[in-house]
Design goal:
7-stranded mixed β-sheet; 360 residues; elongated; 4-stranded parallel β-sheet; alpha/beta
C-alpha cells in the first residue's frame, strides 16, 4: 500500500482552499503517496467516515475554483473558539475518535487548512498524539507567525473593486457611502482596501473612532469642493468607549457574528451632517469567487511545503510565509495571538500622510 496523507479544511471558506488541496495532492503523488480528503471538516474523520480519494490528475480545474470541494464547518463538536475568541478544550473522546479514524485509513499525516480556530483544534489533536501539519487560511490575515494568510489578497481585491464602484455612484449623487468589510477583530482588509480604493475615512478595530472626527473629515471635503465621501469600516470597528456590534445572539459552540456597524455609522453621519448617506455591507462576497493570481501562487507553495513537512515528520508545525521565503513554525506559536494592525506601523502612517481619516 502507498503512503497516505489526509487533508481537512475548517472554518469559513475562502478563495484558494481548492488550490491548496490540489497542490497537496499533486506534490504527494510525485512522492508516490495517495491523498485522502475528509468531508465537512474534522467530523469527516469520525465514524461514519466521509472522505474522497483525491486523484491529482482530476484536480487541475481546482486552481481557480472558489470554496472547497471537501466542504468545511465552523461550528459543532469541533469548535475550539467560542464567544469573543475564548478557547474551548476538545473532549478527549473526540481526539481519540480522530486517532482511530486516521489509523483505520493508515494516514501518515493530516494537513489541517484553516485559521486560528481550525489550527487551535489541530494543536489540541497534536498534543493528543495526532500527526498534524498546518496551513494558514483566513481572509482576515489575523494569524500570527506568517506575514500573509491565503484568501486575504482575494478578499482585498473584492473590497477594492466594490470601492471603485461606490466611488462613481457616490460622486454622481454627492453622497456619503459607507462600506462594511470583514476582518473580525482586525482592520487588515479595511486598511488595505481603503488605501487601494481611495477611501477618505477608514475605521478599524485597532483605532476607536469618534463621530466628531468622521464628520470633520466630511466637512473638510465639502469645503474643498468634494461633495462625496467614501467611508470604509471594518466589521469590528468600535466607537471610542463602545462595544463590538453583533448581528445576532451568540450560538452555542461558535464565535459571535460581528456586523451591522455600517448601518449605525451611516445613520449617525446623516443625522449629524445632513448629507445623504448609504451603507453597503460586502459580507460573504469577500469569501467567494476565484483566488487572485497572488493567492494561487501562495496556496500552491503552501500545499507543497505542507507535504514536505510530513515527509520530514515535522508534525505540530505550520507552513509560514515570511515575505521572501517559507519557513515552518510551531502551530502553538501561531495560534491564540491575534495579529492586529500596528497603530504606528507603515500602513497607518501612509494613510495619515495621504490625509485619510482614521476616525481618531
Amino acid at each position: 500500500m502507498s503512503e497516505r496523507i489526509g487533508i481537512v479544511t475548517g472554518g469559513g471558506d475562502c478563495p484558494g482552499l481548492n488550490a491548496v488541496i490540489r497542490a497537496v495532492a499533486k506534490t504527494a503523488a510525485k512522492r508516490g503517496w495517495d491523498t485522502i480528503g475528509f468531508l465537512g471538516g474534522y467530523e469527516g474523520i469520525l465514524e461514519p467516515q466521509r472522505y474522497l480519494e483525491l486523484d491529482y490528475n482530476k484536480l487541475g480545474p481546482m486552481l481557480t475554483r472558489g470554496g472547497t470541494i471537501l466542504g468545511t464547518a465552523n461550528r459543532g463538536r469541533f469548535s475550539a473558539k467560542v464567544g469573543l475568541g475564548e478557547v474551548r478544550r476538545l473532549p478527549q473522546e473526540l481526539i481519540e475518535g480522530v486517532k482511530v479514524g486516521l489509523a483505520k485509513l493508515a494516514i501518515r499525516g493530516l494537513v489541517c487548512i484553516g485559521g486560528d480556530g481550525t489550527l487551535t483544534i489541530a494543536q489540541q489533536l497534536f498534543e493528543g498524539g495526532v500527526p498534524v501539519v498546518g496551513v494558514p487560511k483566513t481572509i482576515d490575515n489575523d494569524l500570527e507567525a506568517t506575514v500573509l494568510t491565503f484568501g486575504f489578497d482575494s478578499a482585498v481585491a473584492c473590497a477594492t473593486d466594490a470601492l471603485d464602484r461606490l466611488h462613481t455612484t457616490a460622486e454622481s449623487h454627492n453622497r456619503v457611502m459607507v462600506l462594511e468589510v470583514m476582518g473580525r477583530y482586525t482592520g487588515w482588509i479595511a486598511l488595505y482596501a481603503g488605501i487601494a480604493g481611495g477611501g477618505d475615512v477608514i475605521l478599524i478595530p485597532e483605532i476607536p473612532f469618534t463621530y466628531e472626527s468622521i464628520c470633520a473629515k466630511i466637512e473638510e471635503r465639502e469645503k474643498a469642493g468634494k461633495h462625496f465621501t467614501l467611508v470604509v469600516v471594518a466589521e469590528g470597528a468600535r466607537e471610542k468607549g463602545g462595544q463590538f456590534k453583533t448581528l445576532a445572539e451568540q450560538a452555542a459552540n461558535r464565535e459571535v457574528r460581528l456586523g451591522g456597524i455600517a448601518g449605525i455609522v451611516a445613520a449617525e453621519i446623516e443625522r449629524r451632517t445632513g448629507k445623504e448617506t448609504r451603507a453597503c455591507v460586502l459580507g460573504h462576497l469577500q469569501r467567494g469567487g476565484s483566488p487572485t493570481n497572488f493567492d494561487r501562487v501562495l496556496c500552491t507553495m503552501f500545499g507543497a511545503e505542507a507535504v514536505d513537512l510530513i515527509a520530514a515528520d515535522r508534525f505540530g508545525e505550520m507552513v509560514s510565509y515570511q515575505g521572501a521565503n517559507f519557513a515552518p513554525v510551531k502551530i502553538a506559536e501561531a495560534i491564540g495571538r491575534l495579529k492586529t494592525v500596528p497603530i504606528d506601523g507603515g500602513f497607518v502612517r501612509t494613510a495619515r500622510a495621504l490625509g485619510i481619516s482614521l476616525g481618531d
